[in-house]
């Protein structure tokens, strides 16, 4: 993940993301091919998984960078909270697909998702617009204390304009700021384009330079433990539900998706709160503090019945996945355009890779620490 962010900072996002998605789909499907060809070589599956993991790391730094280019800081929490629900939807679909074929033809549990990912990679190549500057008109502008802001530029409107400047043709990107009939208003405003915090630079930041950005290390460690809990639930929930509620494997897998459903609402809620308060760290801290006692009593309350299990899954998912979603999206985008960069460096992909990569370190520990 760390290397992927550094590479992604220096390559076109559309090409990089397309390659990663097509390759991820191919190696995911290849794992399932082993079922149809009766491949029983451990080395085949180990190598396939390693390469699959490598190419999948191209995804998250790329998509967060793209979203960060389009949306300014003011509403990132809400927009990225809604957008980030795709991760929970993916987990739900993955669980349902795997559960559907797990007892009959498990190879399809890998081939079908692989085909879907590869197909969406082609869609990404054809339709993804990396940056507002790639089209004629800039993205929607968000309010800024000194004017208006999108992911790249800050626009300051000034009343006084020199006479000769009024007769100059406007840049195509500025046409979207004119009146709908294309005419300039009587009291013309002058549009001054200023680089937004962290935007417009041409030099890609180094790994060490990204670590020096205030908050990167702290949020990386915070995500490390939030992901530990999330991964633990992902790997062990079906088994736990089977033992507690005495359901079969398929129904337990379907019920475990409620944790991700709660995560969808938690991510959106965390985004809204952080936008209103303008305090990402406080929002994450509060939700994680509430998550601790909730997880502590999860086991006792879930034994009261199926309804109690459902309620606890939704609540736990919201409190755990809310900060998780906020850190990997809005926080990463904010830090990647931090004011300390002074607009001289591209840092979004590298910062996102550091934060999310650190959070993924404990994936193996989650399998060991999960409830048995």
TrEMBL record:
The lineage of its organism: Eukaryota, Metazoa, Chordata, Craniata, Vertebrata. Keywords: Membrane, Sugar transport, Transmembrane, Transmembrane helix, Transport. It comes from the Eukaryota. It comes from Physeter macrocephalus (Sperm whale). InterPro entries: MFS (IPR011701), MFS_dom (IPR020846), MFS_trans_sf (IPR036259), Sugar_P_transporter (IPR000849). Gene3D superfamilies: MFS general substrate transporter like domains. The chain crosses the membrane at residues 15-37, 43-71, 83-102, 108-129, 221-241, 253-273, 285-302, 308-333. This is Glucose-6-phosphate exchanger SLC37A1 isoform X2. Its main location: membrane. Belongs to the major facilitator superfamily. Organophosphate:Pi antiporter (OPA) (TC 2.A.1.4) family. It is found in: Membrane. GO terms for cellular component: endoplasmic reticulum membrane. Pfam families: MFS_1. It is a multi-pass membrane protein. The keyword Transport applies. GO terms for biological process: phosphate ion transmembrane transport. GO terms for molecular function: glucose 6-phosphate:phosphate antiporter activity. Residues 1-372 form the Major facilitator superfamily (MFS) profile domain.
């Amino acid at each position: 993940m760390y290397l992927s962010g550094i590479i992604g900072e220096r390559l076109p996002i559309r090409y990089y993301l397309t390659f990663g998605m097509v390759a991820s789909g191919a190696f995911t499907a290849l794992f399932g091919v082993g079922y149809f060809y009766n491949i029983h070589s451990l080395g085949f599956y180990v190598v396939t998984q390693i390469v699959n993991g490598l190419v999948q790391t191209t995804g998250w730094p790329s998509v967060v960078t793209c979203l960060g280019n389009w949306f300014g800081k003011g509403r990132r929490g809400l927009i990225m909270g809604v957008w980030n629900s795709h991760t929970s939807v993916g987990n739900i679909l993955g669980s349902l697909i795997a559960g559907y074929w797990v007892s009959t033809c498990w190879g399809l549990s890998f081939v079908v998702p692989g085909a879907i990912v590869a197909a969406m990679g082609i869609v990404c190549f054809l339709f993804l617009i990396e940056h507002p500057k790639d089209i004629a008109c800039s993205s929607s502008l968000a309010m800024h204390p000194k004017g208006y802001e999108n992911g790249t530029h800050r626009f300051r409107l000034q009343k006084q304009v020199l006479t000769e400047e009024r007769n100059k043709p406007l840049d195509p990107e500025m046409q979207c700021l004119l009146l709908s009939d294309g005419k300039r208003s009587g009291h013309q405003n002058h549009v001054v384009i200023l680089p937004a915090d962290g935007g417009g630079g041409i030099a890609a930041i180094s790994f060490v330079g990204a670590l020096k950005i205030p908050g990167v290390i702290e949020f990386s460690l915070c995500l490390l433990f939030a992901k530990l809990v999330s991964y633990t639930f992902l790997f062990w929930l079906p088994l736990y539900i089977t033992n507690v509620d005495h359901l079969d494997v398929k129904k337990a897998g379907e019920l475990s998706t409620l944790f991700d459903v709660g995560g969808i609402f938690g991510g959106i809620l965390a985004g809204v709160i952080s936008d209103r308060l303008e305090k990402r760290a406080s929002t994450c801290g509060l939700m994680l503090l509430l998550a601790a006692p909730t997880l502590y009593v999860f086991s006792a309350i879930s034994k009261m019945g199926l309804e109690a299990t459902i309620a606890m899954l939704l609540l736990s998912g919201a409190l755990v996945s809310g900060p998780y979603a906020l850190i990997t999206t809005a926080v990463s985008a904010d830090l990647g355009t931090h004011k300390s960069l002074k607009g001289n460096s591209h840092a979004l992909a590298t910062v996102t890779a550091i934060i999310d990569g650190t959070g993924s370190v404990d994936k193996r520990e989650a399998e060991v620490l999960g409830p048995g």
